[in-house]
Amino acid sequence: MGRVAIAVAKMEKIIGPSKPIFIGIAGVGLLMLLLSFSPFTSYPNMYDVAKMTVTPKKDGAATNDCTTVSYQGLKLDHDPANQTFYDDQTQSYEIGNSGNNWDTKRREWLEHHPSFATGAEDRVLLLTGSQPEPCKNPIGDHLLLRLFKNKVDYCRIHGYDIFYNNAFLHPKMVSWWTKMPMIRAAMLAHPEVEWIFWVDSDTVFTDMDFKPPLEKYKDHNLVVHGYYSKVYEEKSWGGVNAGVFFIRNCQWSMEFLEVWAEMGPQTPNYEKWGQILTSTMSDKTDPESDDQSALVYFLLKQKETLGKKIYIENQYDLSGYWFDIINSFDTISDNYARIEKGVMELQRRHAEKVSEHYAMVMKEAFSDGGGGKRPFITHFTACSPCSGVHWGYTDEQCWGGMEKALNFADNQVLRNYGFVHPDLLNTSYLYPLP
Fold this sequence. Notes:
With 434 residues, this protein is of the alpha/beta class. The protein is built from 14 helices and eleven strands. The protein has helices spanning 2-15, 20-36, 46-51, 102-112, 114-117, 140-158, 179-189, 228-233, 251-261, 270-280, 291-301, 329-342, 355-367, 395-414, and strands at residues 124-129, 161-165, 195-199, 203-205, 222-226, 240-248, 310-313, 320-321, 377-379, 419-420, 431-432. Helix 6 links the parallel strand 1 (124-129) and strand 2. The model is unreliable at 1-28 and 30-64 (pLDDT under 50). InterPro entries: Glyco_trans_34, Nucleotide-diphossugar_trans.
């Protein structure tokens, strides 16, 4: 405004003080001229808006210019009247009845729903859940919410469906065994999916880019994280982790779930199975029958039958042990930032829906010598976010570790929205990206 006053004063010397109207007009004109050269961003004013005209070609409501071309997709509003397994009164959602000919029934349903049949072999439903009551731990419900958000983010990025359950579908199948009836019911509720992806609530997806290589498991029906040596040589109950696994939506899986569930608390042989599993495992001290020890037992006793359909995965962290991982997050973040600086395409901002493309570019960059990859899933085994009970760890270790893992994962999501957490232990502070 100082420059404008000087300019007006000079104008007065030229035209004299007897021309106030002219001076006023000249001052306004000069002000508009100076603002037109302002280094600051200019915005449309009311004069610009008034000059805009809406024509049929520009009006989004009058034409399709502002709408997206739609393509033929899944027909969610179409269910033909053909008879399917849903009309079979003997078919049950409950555990305790494996039914029969599920593969045929599922195939027939897909034939009646051709829009779902396309790509069915790669379709995944992520299944997770928690107890129906509020958490005893004061921050437990908040942590469960963040842990669930993490899974929703992962599913949205990769096109997976997700179902979160907090109801006991079988009153006696509690604790580790709650997953069995949930998986059984989900298979019937989602005949369009090939894989049920069970993920415990106390897990964090810490590599939002990674997508499991399902084609690798074409000859298997159950994929679980573990180590052959721990199962077959050490006979350890920790030889596999039953908190995260893929199970195929097929008749084999339905029958396997029934056999697996027979070791659960709803059966009269529950205590006996606890004794058998404890005597079989080299390091099991808990006398209760649990799902993980039961799975190791199957692998040991039926290696040539059930074992041939179970894939023990250890080439990536399908269930990475959190205590061995969390201290590496800062180093891993720095490593990814270094690789991104060296690959022009990775520096490009992009839509969230095309994240898998950039994940492939990053994968190629790692194959050229990059190290320190993100763990796929970080599993907070022995830390209970809801009860607040830990086995061998402090509150600070468990809650601090979860916050760090969640922010580490959240950074990968928020990047596509233009922000990151500069401090993995500070959830509230975000930094805008350029």
